[in-house]
Amino acid sequence: MCALPVNSVTLDGEVVICGADGVSQFDRMSAVFGRRGSREAFLYAFDILELEGQDLRAERWEARRALLEGLLGAGAEGVRLCEHIEDADGAVVFRAACNMGLEGIVAKRSDSRYRSGRCRDWVKVKNIAHSAIERAMLIALSKRRRPG
């Protein structure tokens, strides 16, 4: 359970369990879903979409990020702010993420508005060596092989 100092907020994020090295552990997450949860699981917050009834999706990413940082700055149990690196060489950041064993990176235009789904302003670059990507590829292949 997480208590934030607001009445209403909608966050975009992902629930994860991380090891001591900070890398998400998907196999442990699947075990948790078989039970009634885990205190190890937390939400990595990527974005804020609504605050106190105000729709923020049309705001620039920079403005939404500042609001999110302010909201989570004091630290809230069960929610962590996803790291952001600005003005860096994307290829260097991606290689470092792969070397750390991360799933990948997301590059966002700082002046972009929030949109669900894929768009040219937000690009997800996946580490194809990551176990979650391998698992997704195996599932996709098995679905193709099934008779229709």
Q: What does this entry look like structurally?
A:
- By secondary structure, this protein is of the alpha+beta class.
- It has helices spanning 26-33, 61-72, 90-99, 131-145; strands spanning 9-16, 42-51, 54-55, 79-81, 104-108, 122-126.
- It has one domain: DNA ligase/mRNA capping enzyme (D-amino Acid Aminotransferase, Chain A, domain 1).
- The protein contains four helices and six strands, in the order βαββαβαββα.
- Strands 1, 2, 3 and 4 form a four-stranded mixed β-sheet that branches.
- The longest helix is centred in the C-terminal third of the chain and has 15 residues, at 131-145.
- It starts with 8 loop residues before the first strand and ends with a helix.
- The model has no long low-confidence stretch (mean pLDDT 81).
Order of helices and strands: EHEEHEHEEH
CATH-derived architecture: 2-Layer Sandwich
The CATH class, by name, is Alpha Beta
* Tally of helical segments: 4
- The 3D shape can be described as globular
Strand proportion, as a percent range, falls in 15-25%
Q: What is the CA-atom radius of gyration, in angstroms?
A: 17 Å
At the fourth level of CATH, the homologous superfamily is: DNA ligase/mRNA capping enzyme
Low-pLDDT sequence parts:
none
Q: Biggest sheet, open or closed, and with what strands and sense?
A: 4 strands, mixed
- Give the tally of β-strands: 6
CATH topology: D-amino Acid Aminotransferase, Chain A, domain 1
Structural class: alpha+beta
Distance linking N and C termini: 43 Å
Structural domain count: 1
